[in-house]
Amino acid sequence: MNLNSAEIETIGLCISLEAIDEVVNHALLDIRTSSKNPENAEVYFKDSIHRSLFLIRFLDFSGESGDSKLTGVTGSCIKVLKHACENKNFNIHDSVGELDVALKNLDDWLNFKLPLKLWLPTLDLEATINVSRFDFLYIAGNHSKHNISRLTGVSKKIHKVLAEHNYDVPLEVIPLALEDFQEHLSENYFIYYGTWMVQLLNDVRWGIQRYLEPMYSACYKQGDDGGSYQYEYPLDLHSEVAKQWFWRLMNHIRSNPYVNKFSAPYYLKGQSSLERGASDYV
User: Fold this and answer.
1) How far is it, in rounded angstroms, from Cα 51 to Cα 86?
2) 220-222 and 229-231 as β-strands: parallel, antiparallel, unpaired?
3) Do 95 and 211 reside in the same domain of the chain?
4) Which domain of life does the protein's organism represent (predicted)?
């Protein structure tokens, strides 16, 4: 199937939007708005299962590559959306600007490094390691997704990280310590940062919304009966498949994001206890 730039962008935008809606929603998360400042909110996971699902889906969105035959991009949804910001086939009066900023903020957060001090009782080791937040998400998300027999790649990554920080641990014992890492990351690190992560992802969802709202307004046509509607397709959309994706995408814009825009409070944007414990690391 040969698609042009606008058609590829349509499919990628719709897939990425739906991926966010699977993460940022009230069924998965408990979002509590501050009574003192309605623009602030704290996010809580309903239980450990919802927390694990959140980490899995966040990792899928930010790090797992989709099918380039479908999206036109080899890479994650973040790369798909960056590609959309570069091509901006539906940009009207710089409507893509908010999405561009939101993606940069999410990318900066994922790539940020701050040392963590981790007590790993299985290895009888207190390790201070300094890798990106995405690396920790990779470990926690994959551990939540797979059983231990499917975690060879995670074990090798942890072994490499420990070796790079001068901790000599045999590779064959790393799988025994995966629960130690998971306890620190899933039950501490990502609980603390959960609110900020949801805000960043929700900002991307609202960025898609703002990018496409002018196009939605131009394409939406109300039926004479007052209840029906249709969309007039942009001239660059020729493929029937792309038109179906466009209709689906516009319906998402019509419905609005599940979660209102909010900001994580400042005290959830500092350092987790694991990072404070490593504050003397050089």
Assistant:
1) 33
2) antiparallel
3) yes
4) Bacteria
Residue whose C-alpha is closest to residue 177's, from 151, 199, 197: 151
pTM of the model: 0.94
Measured torsion, CA atoms of residues 89, 95, 99, 104, in degrees rounded to the nearest 10: 100
Residues 14, 15, 18, 20, CA torsion sign: negative
Cα–Cα dist 116/113, whole Å = 9
96-146 tens-digit pLDDT: 999 999 999 999 999 999 999 999 999 999 999 999 999 999 999 998 888
> Are residues 12 and 97 both part of a single domain?
yes
d(CA 51, CA 155): 22
Looking at the domain assignment, is residue 72 inside a domain?
yes
Q: Which residues contact 243 (CB under 8 A, 6 or more apart)?
A: 233, 237
Q: Do the Cβ atoms of 26 and 43 come closer than 8 Å?
A: no
Question: In the beta sheet, which residues pair with residue 222?
Answer: 229
Does residue 223 come out as left (phi exceeding 0), alpha (psi in the -120 to 50 range) or beta?
Answer: beta
**8 Å CB contact between 21 and 198:** no
Q: How many domains does the chain have?
A: 2
Which domain-ending residue is among 139, 165, 192? Answer: 192
Same domain flag for 105 and 208: yes
